[in-house]
Design goal:
Number of strands: 19
Strand content: 5-15%
GO molecular function, one term: microtubule binding
CATH class of one domain: Alpha Beta
InterPro entries: Kinesin-like_fam, Kinesin_motor_CS, Kinesin_motor_dom, Kinesin_motor_dom_sf, P-loop_NTPase
CATH topology of one domain: Kinesin
Number of helices: 21
Distance between the termini: 88 Å
Keywords: ATP-binding, Coiled coil, Cytoplasm, Cytoskeleton, Microtubule, Motor protein, Nucleotide-binding
Family: Belongs to the TRAFAC class myosin-kinesin ATPase superfamily. Kinesin family.
Protein name: Kinesin-like protein
Structural class: alpha+beta
Bound molecules: adenosine-5'-diphosphate, magnesium ion
Radius of gyration: 41 Å
Length: 728
Amino acid sequence: MSKNKSSESVKVVVRCRPLNRKEESSGPVGGIVQMDLRLGQVILRNPRASPSEPQKTFTFDAVYDGNSKQRDLYDESVRPLIDSVLAGFNGTIFAYGQTGTGKTYTMQGAWLDPEKRGVIPNAFDHIFTHISRSQSDKQYLVRASYLEIYREEIRDLLDPNHSTTRGLDLRESPETGVYVQDLTSCVCKSIKEIEEVMNVGNQTRVVGATDMNEHSSRSHALFLITVECSQPGPDGRKHIRVGRLNLVDLAGSERQAKTGVHGERLKEAAKINLSLSALGNVISALADGRSGHVPYRDSKLTRLLQDSLGGNAKTVMVATLGPAPAHYDETLTTLRYANRAKNIQNQPKVNEDPKDALLREFQKEIARLKAQLNHRRWRSKQKKEQVDGEDWGRDSDEEMEDEEEAVETETDDYVKLEEQRLEREKEAITEDQFLLVEEKQKLLGDLRKEQEATEQLTAKYKAMESKLLVGGKNIMDHTNEQQKMLEVKRQEIAEQTRKEREIQQQMLVQDEETVELRETFTSLQQEVEAKTKKLKKLYSKLQCIKAEIKDMNDEHVGSRQELEQTQNELTRELKFKYLIIENFIPPEEKNKIMNRLTFDPEEDQWNFQPLVPAQSKFSQMKKRPTSAVGYKRPISQYARVAIAMGAHSRFRAENIMFLELDMCPPNPSSLDCLAEAATNQTPSQENSPTKNRDIHKSSSWCQSSKSIPFSSSNNSLAACPAALAKGQ
Ligand code: ADP
Ligand code: MG
């Protein structure tokens, strides 16, 4: 499978945007970032440090200052990567940096201004221009998907219902590596179509931005392009190469905790920043090379970029910086990460003939539809035999010739011929006087159906075939030869500049190491001078390294403090939860819940096991245990004992029921007399018939509370069973 097993490092380029209007107006301090474009170096000045303190220098594959053009960055640093994708490699470009430093500008830019179009639109042009210029024996299939990671949830931006549905899951297969399950992918046949896909996704993101505060700056956006190319190999068989390109616009890398947020906001911020710190950890682990474990699983972003960082993809990281003195710390952190990322080694390889190539399926489907069309043609010829009867002998020869020609003609011609022939048949049937009317109708109906089916099949065939792009077809519409030459020259120049810079960098390193060793000294004085110079150089280097160590220490202290703060918040939260659990959830219930909990390391979360075991899926649910048996409401053990002992009436849960009452059944005369009395005066509580009604009511409660231990109060109730029976 693999063509190229050699490893190559992640390409890291740095871009610094110009000072914006607000920064310019805030003072004449100027930028803190200087760039040596020839050597690919960034020199960072600490605005808080004394002028004598040495400045920090970082070297990268390429650097772009505020005056750099989008096109230069593309031609020099991105074009080779896209070429690799077109050759069947996996490729990733991601922009990393503080919010507002130009990540989105670099990745997308201003679409309408040709000078300001970013990496993504330039990549679209590049891919489709390449296809149109390639040889005609190549077939291409281009697909695009668009997703975002928001709060550790993967959302499909091409799915109109993405905001209502659950986040998508990540899966891993040995063939394709990590992929997103059920992600929408759109087949694109032109630059216009792929731009449309991008617009649809961007609009969905914009909707999110208005719904949620600062949404867009808090989500990572990934635009995925899959280019499948089929080409006949030396063995005569068609071989398919699949290149996958990830274009990633990360969320800002500012530290949320620094802004002093607390409680829920802190937790949210911790979650949002999780993927960025996980990305930092992955970069550190890979760059370090010593630690065996790379924490890809710590976040969705790092899992998606698993192939791009230390995997089989070619990767370009664009680190973006702001030149303002106020962001010195963030700029330094970005530069440190970028510097570390240079050491990551990938093992890019060509994806040749993967099992899941969609192009192969499309080709098979087209072949099947073609065969079906041929078969249909043969069948309609048979039909004609039946309709034309004796005329068949004469027509059959013509038909045969027709057919032979049709095999060679394009589908369009065939459809026309077919339509004409069917029309002729239709007329022949209508004119045939000897056929019965019903038979005619039937045949006409059959013919119509046949015609419709053929049309449907042809439309399907055409639709299927139009999805595939054939190399060389549109060469004339795209560009003339001169333009092509111009582009080639521009590429060559970019390549040349890159090589030059590489050589310059190598020379610089070698100079430092060897020049002084080779020097010969004519006099002692000269030697002393040379050695002093060297000593001074080494001393300044030592100072640099010391400053670096101090910075690192400061950074560690800072991040430790942040972590401690988060830990304190979380501990407080935990104590609060414990308090609730300990005081309000009975221990046996707590144990039951604990026993049902299982941890899913894949998803990194706790899950509830279903109450009904999976094997007895169809059996009845367990019955809910009855609570407070025999009582109207839950009652404490203490109260039960108190009731049993006949203590204070406060503990008689059902105290209305247990009132000591006069249980003798009322006789009709006394009732009459009482009714009379009722009209004159309010009856006393003790003797009123309502009292009896109370007894009736409470008797039913008493019946249900069989397990209640008899207290002195309900002894009297039990002593009057007749009254109770009557009450019922
Ligand atoms: P991010 O995506 O990193 O948060 P943006 O790409 O949105 O930042 O950039 C913030 C602002 O800075 C935008 O107005 C953008 O036009 C401007 N900007 C960024 N980079 C450049 C550049 N290289 N040249 C000119 N303007 C830039
Ligand atoms: Mg942005």
